[in-house]
Batch of 3 targets.
Target 1
Amino acid sequence: MDLNSDFFTLLGLPRRFRLAASELDARYRDLQARVHPDRFVNAPEAERRVAMQWASQANAAYQTLKNPLARARYLVELAGVDLRAETNTAMPADFLMQQMEWREAVQEARCAGNHHELEHLHHRLRADIAARYEEIAAWLDDAQDLSAASEAVRRQMFLEKLQLEITDALLALEE
């Protein structure tokens, strides 16, 4: 194992989308216990610096793999697929229409101060996101269809952003 290992290898986990959170947590704690800089306080400067690098890499791995969207993006990118997320915003027309309808509903509820409707939209979107993560898992782990997985991940990025907008709208109403 070296500092250039992928995050799954670093944590001793299979390279899969479906990960047990408890396993991820346990592997992370185990690695942190071995490389935490506090264990190297009395070590020479070079060893302390390496320990800091290991701890930083372990934290990056954990943060990436515990977040489903980040984990999906990471898996697709590890397989050599560039999502071009910042530049490729082309989506199927039906998905874009759905996005527009969601955003209009959020805007209307926000303007009307309708907390109940925003909660309802948030709940519906969470269910949609969860179902789409199941699709992503199937594309990545079962079918190993990187093309379908990358499209699903790109869509999920839109939905996660919309979920944040709803959360922001809810918070704004609570203030």
Target 2
Amino acid sequence: MSNHQALWTKVDQYVEEKLIPSDEALDTALAANREAGLPAIDVSPAQGKLLQVLAIMNRARRILEIGTLGGYSTIWLAGALPAGGKLVTLEYEAHHASVAKRNIERAGLADRVEIRVGLALDQLGALAEEEAEPFDLIFIDADKPNNPHYLDWALRFSRPGTVIIGDNVIRNGDMIDANNEDVRVIGTRQFFDKLASEPRMTCTAIQTVGSKGYDGFMIGIVDK
């Protein structure tokens, strides 16, 4: 671990100790994810709390999450919903979705979370066919090459005031390299290009450091 990474991790630990009380459901979800062999790419506790705070600030009643993994971020987001609220989360891997389902049930949130399994683009198309109502907050955290397409769908399911958040948009700074051939970096750069030309959104990107390394979020709001 580099000196910088060690410091970032210690700062995250300090923030968690001071501001993020231990939560049995969240701790158990992370342990279950590890036991099930899921990749350790969940948001950090501080990032999860940020997502929850943003959902509360926006008074979100309907949330769309693209990319469930083991449901750790899902639990954070669903915890912000009021009575009668709903979160729809999309996951490609059936095994991941099964782990997430158990984690969400243990957290007591099954009544407000719907997990849809399959290709996210297919599931988004199905939501359109069902004439799903707009969402108040949309969190994009799935396969990065498809981020531009996910943004198109996010806008389709938005209304003025909808908050759209994209994870992993800095990628250790690789996103500034136009010659980088990593498909995740290419997808991220295309995501930025689409955001730059999108008149319906006001947005920014924030670099983050912490226990998850060097990365960042895109945070935007739909204006019209």
Target 3
Amino acid sequence: MTIEFLLTSIVIVITPGTGVLYTLAAGLTRGGRAGVVAAFGCTLGIVPHMAAAVTGLAALLHTSALAFQIIKYAGVAYLLYMAWNTLRERGALKVEEEARPRTAARVIADGVLVNILNPKLSIFFFAFLPQFVSAGEPAALARMLELSGVFMLLTFVVFAGYGLCAAAVRNQVISRPKVLTWMRRGFGAAFVALGAKLALTER
């Protein structure tokens, strides 16, 4: 483990994206527990991409235009679905006093899908992880798994922090209907913008 890896990972994790947006939305409208649950879901969504990178399957997305396009547009469609639900006062920005167990499962499922349906993550990890593994590393697989575990831990901690910070101002937000309405519109627009950005993404 190197300082360079930790610093690079932290910068990558704290950069706002779909996962951060989803976690903030959960914390703002459903409280700290939902924010942490959302962070957990988003972290789980990273696992398939890291597994693909470690096993070399990400190379398929890099070389196969069809595979990349299929996953990309599935991700775009899901982000637009999230935007639609947000504007209809459902999904991530549905205000509830308490999160029931079944609802928590839904929060996790949405968080997982937000990250799974982003093919750029597989390609990113395919390019990112090998930079921190020596060419002649005798246990390269174990090393990459170790780095992946650290990255996931950082992701969860940072995302949970986002969710808890959002939850800290939750009462001030939901007690003002106009603020909540504009916040909902803002998150909806952000999901649409991220969808458009993903749609324009090339391999």
